[in-house]
Amino acid sequence: MPRVTFVDSAPMVLKETNINKMHTPSEGMLHINPKDFVNFNSKNAEATMTIKSIATSAVTYKIQTTSPEKFRVRPRCGIIQPNQEATINIWLKSEHKLSDDSKDKFLVMAMVAPGGECGGADVTELWRSKSPTSADVEQHRLVCRFDENKSKAQLDCASKSSKASVDCSKKSGAGVDPATAMERQLAFTQNLQYVTLALLFLLFAGFGFLMYQQLGQHAATCPKATAYSCAKRK
Q1: What are phi and psi of 192, to 5 degrees?
Q2: pLDDT above 80 for 129
Q3: Do the Cβ atoms of 38 and 106 come closer than 8 Å?
Q4: pLDDT score of 26 more than 70
Q5: Running DSSP on this structure, what letter comes out for residue 69?
């Protein structure tokens, strides 16, 4: 089974003046994901990078940064067999922050591993004696930034919510001045009062009609008093 070898050694320091020249446009040995940026999570200041070997033989890689005092990188170098990949974890130290002008960069370098395989000490020594600008070294330059996709999504969501609120307000109050709105409100209140009075009148009228019917029925059922006359005296 193909083997992936990781080596933990100190990162070599890059300078802003020369990193811009260190970039190989085509991918011949490594495929980097993400390709152009090291995207740090805004919550925990962590980033993850995946490097995959697309070469036909073992490849050794080395990671450099322009600001080694700001970052912790694990692993910093190693060997990847064909069609294998390695996950690189990067942390921004709590006492530091990313530069606003995108000056914090990483450089991933790759070259064919001599003999196909070698140990950790051999990898460290190999890169120590290797010039980053050698013709057989593939270079991938990445710029550090906070995850813009998440931030952009949050901003878009907030913008859409704000726009929806503004549109709703415009629709509800479009073309209506305060005086007209007040008049409409007063007219509605008056109409509501008229309707309430009409309902009360109908209620009392119905109650009076029922009382009248009850009294009529009571009078009809009571027996009439019989009149008696005194007998005439002879």
Answers
A1: -65, -40
A2: yes
A3: yes
A4: no
A5: T
Which residues are registered as beta bridge partners of 119? none
- Structure-token match 């009062």, residue found: 193
pTM to 2 decimals?
A: 0.56
Q: What is the DSSP secondary-structure string of 86-151?
A: EEEEEEE-TT----TTS--EEEEEEEEPTTS---HHHHHHHHHTS-TT-TT-EEEEEEEEE-HHHH
pLDDT digits (tens, 9 = 90+) for 171-183: 444 555 667 777 7
Q: Each residue of 61-72: pLDDT tens digit? A: 999 999 999 999
Identity of residue 187: A
Helix (H, G, I), strand (E, B) or coil at 202: helix
What's the mean pLDDT in 210-227? 68
* Sequence-separated contacts (24+) of 13-19 with Cβ below 8 Å: 13/64, 13/65, 13/66, 13/68, 14/64, 14/65, 14/66, 14/105, 14/107, 15/66, 16/66, 16/103, 16/105, 19/66, 19/105, 19/107, 19/141
